[in-house]
Every structure is written in structure tokens, then in C-alpha cells.
Model the fold of this input.
Amino acid sequence: MCVEDVVMVMHLLMKSDITGERFTVISENITFKELIFWIANGLKIKKPTMLAKPWMTSIAWRLDWFFQQFFSKRKFSRATAKSLHTTAIYSNEKIKNRLNFEFQPIKKLLKRLLLLIQKLFSFFFYSLFQ
Done:
């Protein structure tokens, strides 16, 4: 989901007579594995082959906590580790039906983002070696 979708939904809700309701604003349900594979394909790099087991991520968040005490801010929390091994399915049907709204597909947005990243890197390396 992108910022444009969120802003559009907010705008449509403000213009509507809908009040006192909560909505889940999500484009689609995907796993971290799918996202990482899509990014790897988009960047034309090798996909990860090793699956991080729960005990591995458990050690990782504890090490991250320890190093954060001395060096920098946390990057990998207990909640992040737990979410990597759980599947939560959310429905956006309510918002889609009430506002007659269609979200942009994540793959389309990811392609746009990866193209931008590739342009930035090519510009950086081009300017670096001139």
C-alpha cells in the first residue's frame, strides 16, 4: 500500500457522512518471504535460501537489545521477531465496499520503487566516477 492510497481513503472518508467507524487500510496480505523474493527479483539478485528459525530470531533480538545498550538504536525488536513467524490476515473489504475504492497492487508499487532506487544508484555511481 502506498501513501497515495492512504491519503485518498482519508480524503474520501472526510467527504463522506461516515463517522465513528474504524477501517483497516491495507492493500493486500503478503508474507515477509514474498516481499523479500519480489525485491530480490526486482533487483536481479539471488533470493535468500536460508529460513530464519524462531530460535535464530530470538537470539537476534536479544543481541540487538544488548548492542543497543552501548551503540545505537534498536533495529530488531522482540515484536518484529515474533511477527516474522506468525501470519495475520486482515480484510479490507469494509473500506472497499463503503467507499468503492481499489488499492494499488503492492507489486506495481514495488516495481516503481525499485526503478527509482536503480536510477538513484546509477546517478550516484555516474557522478562518483566523473
Remarks:
- DSSP finds six helices and no strands in the chain.
- The helical segments are 3-15, 32-43, 54-68, 78-84, 93-99, 106-128.
